[in-house]
Design a protein that fits this description.
The protein contains eight helices and eight strands, in the order αβαβαβαβαβαββαβα. It is an alpha/beta fold and 264 residues long. It has two domains: 126 residues, Rossmann fold; 117 residues, no CATH class. Helix 1 runs parallel beside helix 2. The longest helix is centred in the last third of the chain and has 19 residues. The protein is globular.
Amino acid sequence: MAGLAPFHMADSNIGMGGGLAAATALSAISEQKNVSVVGDGTLWHSALNTCVVNGLYNKQDATYLVLDNKWTAMTGAHENPNSGPQLTGQASGGVFNIERTFKGLGVKHVEKANPYNFRDFQKKLKKIQADPDPQLRVLISEAECQLQRQRTVKPMRAKAIAEGKRTEVERLGVDEEVCVGDHSCMRVNGCPSLTLEESPNTLKTAPVAAIDTTCVGCGVCGEIAHAAQLCPSFHKVTVVRNASRFERFMQRLSERLLPALRAA
């Protein structure tokens, strides 16, 4: 997927779980530091034996990025030993833990980061790459797959709304008046909720960026755009259902005051 638009980050694709093994050969002929990526499902399926043990045995100087999203997305969101139940249906109890497994194998530099906190993730990736020790370094990108998370969260939220309970949902948006239509945000983003709409300003011929209703409010699109110093038009709002009387009063007050303040 990283080889496709808008990322274009891969020059070659090889067998399942073989990224770190290929990096072994590349590190022998190039001084440039490389990063190999593997999902948690593939890690348990084959990569531990074919790549990690080999990398440790050969004292490989490489960074290994493990995408720990708690599901095996490649085969349709199946469980894996890191998160799923046993054959009997009982919880695995965290017997197979990615961080402990790497440390048990002898990897000295293991870090974890939340990919939805883009700045912190970027900082930790740079730090682990800058480690001068010629060794295998592991960064675990740990956050549940948003598709799977929403399949659990949405029914719970709908039930709470039906029962009259107060709920909050965060959503991202793009200020159409600020957006200049250069679409640089899309070229570095790849979020499926980010799309194009006609500009409300007749003087702007280019379509403007917009975020549709599939947005789950993870915030990555805005964080990337701001971190890359691309665009100030992204904003986050909190949608409240079954708001309190005070919240409804403040909303009505804002609706009356803001137009008056703009006119002044």
